[in-house]
Amino acid sequence: MDQKIDRILGTYSSGKKGPLLFLSGGIHGNEPSGVEAILKVFNQLKKDKPQIAGTVVGVSGNKIALNKGTRYIEEDLNRSWTEENIRLKKKNSSEQKQMFEIIDVLQKYPAEAFTKRYFLDCHTTSSASLPYISVQVVNENDEWAHRFPPYIIRGFSDIVYGCIDHYLSRIGVTGFVFEGGRHDSPHAVENHEGMIWIALEKACDLDLKSLSEMPKSIGKINNSQKDQKTFEIVHRFGLEDGDTFSMEPGYENFQKIKKGELLAICNNKEIRSSWDARIFMPLYQDQGNDGFFVIKEVES
Ligand SMILES: [Zn+2]
Questions:
Q1: Do 143 and 241 belong to one domain?
Q2: Does 2 map to a domain?
Q3: Centroid of ligand 1 to alpha carbon of 231 (angstroms)
Q4: Residue-wise pLDDT tens digits, 57-109
Q5: Which pLDDT tens digit goes with each residue over 196-227?
Q6: Residue 249 domain boundaries
Q7: Would the CA dihedral through 174, 137, 157, 166 be positive or negative?
Q8: Considering the domain boundaries, does residue 49 fall inside one?
Q9: What is the CA(28)–ligand 1 centre distance, in A?
Q10: CATH number assigned to the domain comprising residue 204
């Protein structure tokens, strides 16, 4: 993005009591799509001035990394939100300092001032993917996530520790992570935008018809998956330092796999599927210690 990104991307209210909708984009600095989408939505809100209940606030995540176009400065901002770091008020790294800046913003919108507090954390993926929701199944997150059209992955955020959505869930804010598509894909911006509008409709009672024109992004996200499905992780193919790993070409997130199918070569050995299921997060970059995940559809 050409313009300098601020911490606060926008705030909007029409003075009516209601919930807080807390939007975050660019927690990873190489994922500007969420920020772009948040800015677009605030532009239209300021222009059209529709009635909403409560307040919507948008913040940038790793602002410094976003402005440099890198994923992070010293450490991953989506691993720093641990109970310990927050309790000890650790401000050693750029990311820890920025984490407390975001917490300071949130503290201006305390639970007592709202009927409820929601969050939507916008991310993108390194490889092509259908948009999807990643939900930590605590409090009302899962129920809330099922009010949105995209595919839902449960339990993925439990594998990693210190994500912003964990922190927000711990302090009682309801929400999920939304992965809009590939980092550089224009569809990712649209998908994020569509989800933000739907969140405004569902959380803040925005009547989408009261906008000067219906954002096209809403139709896109509604049509992005024919019907909602819910998935759980059944297997993680982990890698150790020094392993050689090469995924068979052409796999995309959510692609179906069959028992016996060759998935990857690891340390010169064939890795074949033991499942009739789907593949998730196949590793096609050099870095990472997850070769792939296997997910299965479950009853929602
Ligand atoms: Zn991310």
A1: no
A2: no
A3: 20
A4: 999 999 999 999 999 999 999 999 999 999 999 999 999 999 999 999 999 99
A5: 999 999 999 999 999 999 999 998 888 877 78
A6: 234-298
A7: positive
A8: yes
A9: 5
A10: 3.40.630.10
Residue 112 lies in a domain: yes
Same-domain pairing of 100 and 24: yes
Distance 282 CA to ligand 1 centre (A): 16
Please tell me the distance between residue 15's alpha carbon and the centre of ligand 1 in angstroms. Answer: 33
Give me ligand 1 centre to Cα 172, in Å: 22
Asked, for residue 263, whether it belongs to a domain, the answer is yes
Q: Tell whether 83 and 48 lie within a shared domain.
A: yes
